Amino acid sequence: MNGRLLIFGAATLWSLSGPLAKLAQLPGPSLACYRALCAGIFLLCFVRGGRLRWRPALLGMVLSFTLLNLTFLWAVTLTSAANAIFLQCTAPLWTLVACLAWLGEKLDRRSLFSVLLGLSGMALIAGGGWGESPLGIALALSSGVFYSLITVFLRYLRDEDPYLLTCINHLSAGLLLLPLTFLPGQVSPAELPWTAALFLAFFGVVQLGTPYLLYAKGLQSVSPQEAGVITLLEPVLSTFLTWLAVGEQPAATTLWGGSIVLIAVALRYLPVLGRVRPNAENVSPEIP
């Protein structure tokens, strides 16, 4: 299947994160743990053996994924879903910065303009939501950084089985976060009602496990930059669906700042979509 369609499907399912997280009514760390565990168990069904070669990127991938789940869902429980998702959407800009630092790429004027424009949008969102929940805003900003790192690490590991990588990510994240569920104010496995367990199973399988399968597979033929553009659909849908589900209305600063962030990412990466390369699906693009 076309890599772009796979990533488009992943973005659509990911957009359910806002409304489902609000409806779950669980503390952020507990929610992140159980969602990842349910997704990981589901993903085991798609693993058919396979072996991984040990590389430092594997550890970086697992830690980044774990921290992404923790910071994003915790942010959603502390601030508006729109604040969390739009700030997470800055991931492509952080990916650009990471590649400049790690791979020695040059910063052209278009890239510089996109980063500065994106920073202004982030500042607008953060400024509007900081008084309400500084921790929520800080966690949302962090989630964007960890999301970008996952994209980079997956590209380093693009010759490995994407299903195995995705399964390892989710199971590892769930197990690493499990001790947090026993802390005061959290919900341990023994305290989890069966209705909540069923809801979390749906949350993990449909909203998290399935889209990551699509995304990991799509990255085999789509560059991280282009994937970042396609997933711009996610924050828009998530904000709208959260409003429908729980009536949460984003602040004006969030809507304006989020629009600026989306424009910044699109201005930097949208031209990639218009390039037609021969046998594009068979080309493995370089890390950005």
Describe the fold and architecture.
The protein has 288 residues and is an all-alpha fold. The chain has one domain (3-274). The protein is 71% helix and 0% strand. The protein has 13 helices and no strands. Helix 3 packs across helix 10, helix 5 (81-88) packs parallel to helix 8 and helix 5 runs antiparallel to helix 12. The radius of gyration is 18 Å and the shape is globular. The two termini are 23 Å apart.
- Radius of gyration over C-alpha positions, nearest whole angstrom: 18 Å
Helix content: over 70%
Poorly predicted runs are: 272-288
**Strands, count:** 0
Number of helices: 13
| Main sheet specs | none
The structure class reads mainly alpha
Mean pLDDT: 84
Global morphology: globular
> How much of the residues is beta strand, in percent?
under 5%
Give me the oligomer status: single chain
H/E topology pattern:
HHHHHHHHHHHHH
Q: Ends: how far apart?
A: 23 Å
Q: Count the domains.
A: 1
Q: Helices, strands, pairings?
A:
Layout: H1 3-14, H2 17-24, H3 28-43, H4 56-78, H5 81-88, H6 91-103, H7 109-130, H8 134-156, H9 162-177, H10 194-218, H11 224-230, H12 233-246, H13 252-269
Helix pairs in contact: 1-10, 1-12, 2-10, 2-12, 3-4, 3-9, 3-10, 4-5, 4-8, 4-9, 5-8, 5-12, 5-13, 6-7, 6-8, 6-11, 7-8, 7-13, 9-10
